[in-house]
Protein: Alcohol dehydrogenase
Amino acid sequence: MKIRAAVLQAIGAERPYTETKPLVIEELELDPPGDNEVLIQIKAAGLCHSDLSVIDGNRPRPVPMALGHEAAGIVKEVGNGVRDLKPGDHVVAVFVPSCGHCEPCAEGRPALCEPAAKTNNAGTLVSGEHRLHRADGTAINHHLGVSAFADHAVVSRDSLVKVDPELPLHHAALFGCAVLTGVGASINSADIKAGQTVAVVGLGGVGLNSVLGALVAGASEVIAIDLDDSKLALAKELGATHTFNSGEEGVVDAIKQLTNGGVNCAIEMAGSEKALEFAYQITRRGGTTVTGGLAHPEKKVALQQVSLVAEERTLKGSYVGSCVPVRDVARYVSLFRQGKLPVDKLLSDTLTLDQINEGFEKLAAGKAVRQVILFD
Ligand SMILES: NC(=O)c1ccc[n+]([C@@H]2O[C@H](COP(=O)([O-])OP(=O)(O)OC[C@H]3O[C@@H](n4cnc5c(N)ncnc54)[C@H](O)[C@@H]3O)[C@@H](O)[C@H]2O)c1
Ligand SMILES: [Zn+2]
Ligand SMILES: [Zn+2]
Structure:
């Protein structure tokens, strides 16, 4: 079938993206679903910094690539072997498919699924196939097995989680990346215990979800940190107990003083080495620093080595919130419905597909939290 999709032509375009237009809306041919694949009509797709990192070259991927990985939609057709989804079902796409059979999947860590890591890097579906082509036959790479900035997508069954059709799809979309990653970093990766002190560094769509996750987990203090004061104000509205602008002098000392030596757990969701170093500095003796921001592969951090040992510190990465997708999407949706995870407050704008370059310019300028593209 013919679809309209936003295709990244080359990485590293100059800003402003409103002028250089790195994404071009193209009419593409979408093949029918193969074995264990599903055709979905995309209804809503969120703009995440990880898409921006492909555009600006911080997360190099093969081009041309149909971008987008945070989405919700409706099943239109299922391929051979798909028995537990049917046309009409509402689904959320998760940006790491889980095969269920590799070693990490078997150990309950599907965020590390091995076949998925390989094919996500290669720009194919987990089957190894490209289902997107130009009229001249050129294959278009898939982004993280989803390619969500399009009216339809063919994805692996293993990339989808079924959700209740009562859940509005523009809210459902956020659960595929921002909520799963941010809340999961607090609940799964950091394993926050009631009464602990927590700091979150970087308050975009992902970091603000970590703030909400820390509150749900029962943190006694949730300290929200960013370089942008407007993000601090939103974090406060969402329930953060304290906010700090890390661009100001003396903030590390101020946080240490406030928390009697540092927080039990600091979560970095900014994607820069400076932010991770900052998060490490404000973590207390015996505490845990979790990092979820995605920096350029060549970036290195400088940490005081002896403190890891003599202070028994833990430094831990968190990918897709160390999630088990089916379990965690259901849990977080249930918390959302109870009003305990108001992730709808993070939706700052809705856009059309044709406004996508404007949307990424706004995200790059730090002027948006979560923007969602709506499809008819
Ligand atoms: N681990 C994962 O599975 C996963 C999933 C999705 C996104 N990510 C990554 O998480 C990060 C956040 O994504 P997002 O969509 O929320 O991005 P965003 O651009 O919406 O937010 C990033 C925030 O970090 C702030 N920031 C930047 N440098 C900072 C610093 N030195 N100190 C404090 N704050 C700083 C910015 O002002 C901004 O508010 C990105 O690196 C993204 O690629 C990781
Ligand atoms: Zn994302
Ligand atoms: Zn696997």
Summary: The chain has twelve helices and 18 strands. The mean pLDDT is 98. The chain has two domains: 2-176+342-374, 182-318.
